[in-house]
Known about the structure:
Putative O-methyltransferase YrrM; S-adenosyl-L-methionine; seven-stranded mixed sheet; Rossmann fold; Cation-dep_OMT; SAM-dependent_MTases_sf; 7 strands; globular; SAM_O-MeTrfase
Amino acid sequence: MSGQIFAQVDQYISNLLAPEDKVLQDTIKSLDEEGFPQISVTPNHGKLLQVMAKLSNAKKILELGTLAGYSTIWLARALPEDGKIITLEVEERHSNLARKNIEKAGLSDKVDFRVGKAIEILPQLLEDKEGPFDLIFIDADKPPYTEYFEYALKLARPGTVIICDNVIREGKVLDENTTDEKVKGVQRFNKMLQSNQDVTATIIQTVGVKEHDGIAIAVVNR
């Protein structure tokens, strides 16, 4: 089977169950307008995040990696009226763009933006007792994925859902001799997940408009 059929099926599912409204479409367009990379989640994956948030009755969500706020919008729309999402972004320019997109979406009252390195902000969240979170979505730089996950566990509760994106890297995780730091980061993360006794987890292999990758989904054990 070719990548073309995967992309067509992906589009078919999106059209049926994850159609983008103007707010989401404009959020994606804003990346091109600002010259930022088009690395947001797909509509299907945005809808998956929304479904998982509703499934876990999420009221407090933590997101690592805001970019233009595309996934943030999907997640924030799943929150109840008094729900809140804290989203971390290392690039101030990305965060500023996301603020504009979130405002256009009418979700500013639900989104708390934090700018800086996640590895420095996460300990502060712990110190300030901002957890526990009901759902945590990790979609940031790949080398420290293991450390991000370890912090996520400290900010979680039994039953918290932790979702980590881009953990298959077009199958490059199979290359034991890779020199790609992103691949090495997710290899280390996947290996950690295998032996972690605090969660029940799996990895879902994904194909579609963004080709071949995978999403790790873990639930903190009760």
